[in-house]
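re: that chain from earlier
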Amino acid sequence: MKIKNIKLKNYRNYDALDISFNDNLNIIIGENAQGKTNLLESIYVLAVTKSFLSASDRNLIKFNSKFSFINGLVEKKDCLTNLEILVNDNGKVVKINGKEIKKLSEYISRVNVIVFSAESIRMLKESPTSRRKYFNIQISQINRNYIKKLSDYNNILRQRNEYLKIINGNKKSDQEYLDILNTKYAELSVDVYEYRKNYILEINKYLDRIFKSIVGDELHLKLNYSCNFISGEKEYSLKDNLLWKLKDNFTKELSYKMTLFGPNRDDFYFTLEDKNLSLFGSQGQMRSAILALKLAEVLLFNTKIGETPVLLLDDVFSELDINKRNNILKYLDKKVQTILTTTDIENISEERRKNANVYVIKNGKIISREIIFKQEGDVNE
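^ sequence. v structure.
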């Protein structure tokens, strides 16, 4: 899977941009606040229709503009596809080969991307909501059925929460309707749980080995999935176990007026040598763990969809020593299209960059590779 070209209009700090990528390594170099991360973000938005930097689509629109536009030409299994996203005050319009797509489940996964940025590390310290959002997107990229199941689950969750606000707990008809909601809710909860559980199991097949190769020691890293309706009672199915929890905690949920059990309360966390990494790990260990997760996802995506995803690395080398840089670069083989940003071209070996497309971003403009080395003295002014 490769992104051949990206065109932007009124996107963040770009008036207009037309940039082509090679199939292997692409390097975007420039000082901070010049638009390097914005370019990576636009590729991510093209793939999953959401930003990894902002929850508001309005922030994607250039100041004093009425819309933002992204167009990308994607090659997947020797087939070229044109993807478009238009963002304005009325919402978002997505198109495939010029045809508007109403259901995002039919759009997402047309191009698969994995991104590493400062936001990726922050995810470990933030609330479980941010981690659920992250893994929902990752699972959706390799399995469209998950998008549908998750959408159905969120709909029934909303219905149940709304009903908990108005239900009369002593009224038989109200309780009977809640039982119907509970049954459907439990069925969909189990479906979502199974998708998430299987994804984490697959990631852990690669994660520890990659982490060891990055950090150069034998510390054991594992990604864990915490679900609050799993019980040690083997005689009950997951569905029945959740139904029991809902029944036993009915009064509590009624007082809170919200659903307290199910995938809406799931969490994900790393353990390093069986200790919670976000509580006991160093900043460097957390950074290496997230990098290992991203590289493990590259391998998993390739296994599941038969194509390598596009890897977006935002200033990944700035805080790594030369050994860790080399350990990461060895994973960036010719099968993986990589687009990375850096403030210092010396972070990347001359051997690596001689066959790469190298671009300089300065004042919202891109300078092509052919003139970068003639003007290299300008880069760090």
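Confidence is low (pLDDT under 50) at residues 370-381.
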